[in-house]
Amino acid sequence: HMSGRMVTTWKCDEAPDEEPTERQEPFRKLNCIIDKSVNYLSQGIKKGLEEVIEKHSETLGRNADYKSVSRIARLPEYLTVTYNRFFWKASESIDAKIVKSVKFPLDLDVSEFCTPELVEKMRPARLHLREIEDKKAHERKLAKKGQNAEPEAEKKDMDVDVKPEASSAPFELSPEFKADDGCNPTGMYELIGVVTHIGRTANSGHYMAWVRKEKGVGGPDPAGRGIPETQHWWYKFDDDEVSMVTDDEILKLCGGGDWHTAYVTLYRAKKLE
Fold it and tell me: Residue 120 carries which DSSP code?
């Protein structure tokens, strides 16, 4: 449920006739590499999956640069992403922190980091998930119009709502995905947890956890503070003090200053229902 499978290929551009080498191995997290060019999570993940390493080439008889490209061959139900925010600062002999802002989404699509074979296998489930989300969005729109009903004369001038088209046949998950307990058949995730750090070094500061509250679970929402149906409340765990915040506060944990900064984000596969 928390472990996937990665395929890594090494290719030497200096020896075009040399056959690429490939290896498959399990993984439990994706790394978000942070440098000056990274502003968004997807950019940092891509940097973590593509790199240039030096190793011995049998064809050339010497060390050469190899481009390493990793792609996901199996996605877990729960996906952990770690942010490489700490580095050794020799001038001060400390594990310094990169406070640069790296924005992360509430909804994450990792299909661009998957093998072509997995992308093709996921296509029917991804289409079905989009239909589900389009239907929910349409229902919310109708409910909102019902609450703000307009006079009949004005309604006649409005465009007619078109209901999203449904599949001609009932959706059936492929046997391969059905047999793979704990996988994600769509590549689409939703954020459910964040670990943050506040401070300037790895050996100082304060760590906190932020956990999304499931709708209708864990007691009532904070009284008198309604939020849109598409948003969630979050538990903020600060040692023994627990409070609640909204999605907007979670998105502020991207860094860029001395506020709490995301160090680990936990995503869960979106449900096909």
Answer: H
Give the span between the Cα atoms of 112 and 127, in whole angstroms: 16
| Cα angle for residues 107, 113, 114 (degrees, 5° grid) | 105
Q: Which residues pair with 63 in a beta bridge?
A: 56
d(CA 89, CA 96): 6
Alpha helices in 100-159 (DSSP H): 116-147, 152-155
- What pairs with residue 88 in β-bridges? 95
Q: Which residues pair with 161 in a beta bridge?
A: none
Contact 11, 23 (CB under 8 A): no
Q: Is the pLDDT of residue 188 over 70?
A: yes
Cα torsion 14, 17, 56, 58: sign: negative
The β-bridge partners of 109 are 188
The DSSP bridge pattern shows strands 30-33 and 50-57 to be unpaired
Collect all residues with Cβ–Cβ distance below 8 Å to 211 and sequence separation of at least 6: 192, 193, 234, 235, 237
Query: Which has the higher per-residue pLDDT, 225 or 40?
Result: 40
Q: Render pLDDT for 146-176 as a digit per residue (tens, 0 to 9).
A: 766 554 444 444 454 555 555 456 889 999 9
Distance CA 187, CA 75 (A): 7
- The vertex-117 CA angle with 112 and 121, nearest 5°, equals 90
pLDDT digits (tens, 9 = 90+) for 11-57: 999 999 999 999 999 999 999 999 999 999 999 999 999 999 999 99
Q: Which string of b and e fits 192-230 if b means at least 16 CB within 10 Å?
A: bbbbbbbeeebeeeeebbbbbeeeeeeeeeeeeeeeeee
Please report, rounded to a whole number, the percentage of residues in the chain having pLDDT higher than 70. Answer: 90
**Exposed, middle or buried by CB within 10 Å (0-12, 13-18, 19+), for 267?**
buried
pLDDT of residue 60 exceeding 50, the answer is: yes
> Beta partners for 1?
none
